[in-house]
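User: Please predict the structure of the protein below. I'd like the answer in structure-token form so I can feed it into my own downstream comparison script.

Assistant: Understood. Taking the following sequence of 326 residues as input:
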Amino acid sequence: MINDIPVFTISLDFELYWGIFDKVPLAERKKYFTNTRRVIPEMLTLFEQQQVQVTWATVGMIFAKDWNDWTNAIPALRPSYHNDQLSAYRLKDEFGRDGSLKDFFFAPDLVRQIDCTPYQEMATHTFAHYYCQEAGQTVEQFRQDLQAAQGTAARQGMKLESLVFPRNQFNEQYLRVCYEEGIKTVRSNPSDWFWKQIVKDTLSSKIFRTGDAYLPLGKRTSFPLSSLQVEDGLPLAIPASRFLRPVDGKRDILNKLRLNRIVSEMTVAAKRKECYHLWWHPHNFGSYPERSMSDLRVIIDHYKKLEQQYGMRSLSMRGIYEYVIS
């Protein structure tokens, strides 16, 4: 029987330009990602100082030093999306000749810094920001993608045991492959109806997902660890609780609402001895890095208060797995 304790966990989707290449031109986001690279060490310093465990789900391509190193790491099988614009592999032809752009794609220095910082877990966001529910791709292509991610991490002495599906395209049919390729835990989506269909999204689900960040439109976000199901041959699925939305530069009232909602939900989780799982992309801090870090300090300071008052613990995704199975 799992003993329920109050837990605060953070998982980050570390992508650089690999995460938005099919949505936004790189020319519009150069300062954005330059800020992202600058703010990540600030996050790490804060997490280390406050002893906060964090799971960094990192796109495997970011581990490469440059395009030549990237070429040596790619798998033989690549995703055969019906929409070929979704494939990250096309980006070398578009950007590979300009060496000045490589910092928007590769960050082995940050990968090493994350891995060397206490309390941090290096995890995977797949090798090529792989979309697990898109038409055309296959389970074997996904397997080779994970093998490439594990291979590039192993060359730097790392083993990846947690996974976050890109774009939250949680695919239950692929969970066994995850387990067979060394993944012990994955992040799953909230149970609300507006998180059910991520690929074939509707306007109403987008509106409700956004609105729920400010007002209580969905179910309670925290959950007891005893509700997590451990099944043979499958990784442990840990639901997300809340996405830390980026700072809105024009609407301070929305910024306050989203921050108050997170702090309030954390308090509820602590009182009920439940887990609160917060996530975001490091690049979400790229537009307003100072204000974003200020908000993060508010969240971490509140966690420390809950730690003192209710015994709330900081656990990474792997930390939750280890607690549950023990």
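That's the full token string. The two ends are 10 Å apart (CA to CA).
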